[in-house]
Specification:
This protein has 162 residues and is mainly α. It folds into two domains: 95 residues, no CATH class; 59 residues, no CATH class. Helix 2 crosses helix 5. The chain is elongated, with a radius of gyration of 30 Å. The N and C termini lie far apart (70 Å). This is FH2 domain-containing protein.
Length: 162
């Protein structure tokens, strides 16, 4: 375990090799809150009169952007582990996007939805759309038939199977 002065020195010099993930996470959780920072900045007495913790935090406040430094050091240490988790998911997403782009079924379904939307909006200025926003797909659940409890989603499902 490093002594408090060397921690301050290493943080100030961005010596990331002197820290591990757990120590930086712990340090991040014990950083002073705004009120504590204000109280420390107002302190005008001798530093030697402070407890070691208060002295440490007072010295920490002298480091420019100390919070950001700690977060950046933590991010650098965690980067490879995070990337090991993310890269396979990005690869799967890329494969899924490629499959969707190649799928003739998806194209037919989207064309069907555009045509239904144009029919429903034929009396408005939105009736001749060339496409739609993906976020508007949620609306097909909300459009209900006049009879029964079926929705536009049910109609689209039936039409896509025929």
């Amino acid at each position: 375990m490093q002594d408090l002065d060397s921690i301050i020195s290493d943080l100030n010099a961005n010596k990331i090799a002197h820290f591990d993930i757990e120590s930086l996470r712990t340090l991040k959780t014990i950083l002073p809150e705004t009120e504590e920072v204000d109280a420390l900045r107002r302190y005008t007495g001798e530093i030697t009169q402070l407890t070691p913790a208060c002295s440490f935090f007072l010295n920490l406040l002298d480091i420019p952007d100390y919070r950001l430094r700690i977060e950046c050091m933590l991010l650098r240490l965690e980067f490879h582990r995070v990337m090991e988790d993310v890269v396979p998911n990005v690869h799967l997403l890329k494969i899924a996007c490629t499959e969707l782009r190649k799928s003739s079924s998806i194209r037919r379904l989207l064309l069907l939805l555009v045509n239904i939307g144009n029919y429903l909006n034929s009396s408005s200025s939105h009736g001749n759309a060339a496409g739609f926003k993906m976020s508007s797909l949620w609306k097909i659940i909300d459009h209900k038939a006049t009879k029964g409890s079926s929705s536009l989603l049910h109609l689209v499902a039936k039409a896509s199977y025929s």
